[in-house]
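Quick illustration for those who missed Monday's session on complexes.
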Amino acid sequence: MSILKVRVYGDEVLRKKAKEVNKISKKIQILVENMIATLYAYNGVGLAAPQVGESLRIFVIDVSEANQPKNPIIFINPKIIQKSGAINSYEGCLSFPEVYTDVRRYKNVKVKATNLQGKPFTIEAKDGELLAIAIQHEFDHLEGKLFVDHARNRFATDEALISHKLNPIDMNYFMEENDLEEEIAKESETKNE
Ligand code: ZN
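Prediction with zinc ion bound:
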């Protein structure tokens, strides 16, 4: 197993739409093994193939706690088949060293994917749990989208990016997501009552 180099924001591979995996070849198996090793080496929650320079529809997620046994989930050719609700998510990304910011996410998602044995599976993640957030974050990487494109406060996010010597938000990719924003605002109102 080897630890792969993680591409940093600004690298154009992160903006490419990744290609479907047609066959789970030996090469794909090795790539996935190395992605998992890389995820653990960086103490990440998720890692998508484009982040290691491979523009393929694969990501790995492990939401287990430090004191729990490791539990990597491998998603090949994933599709998000349901999404609902909205939530504020304070996120970072291995491709944005040390940058954290508030972004909009759906609260619940259902995803269909194939595992490393080529078997299809479906996972439902609810109530804004870490898995629900991680699935959306990693799926975005396959579409050439990045978490800062969902920034709730574009100026605060730009500040965080610039202070870590990264480019500000690229307005060609920025998403307004007014419907999600309204739903998040509604939820925080009810909480404050
Ligand atoms: Zn990421």
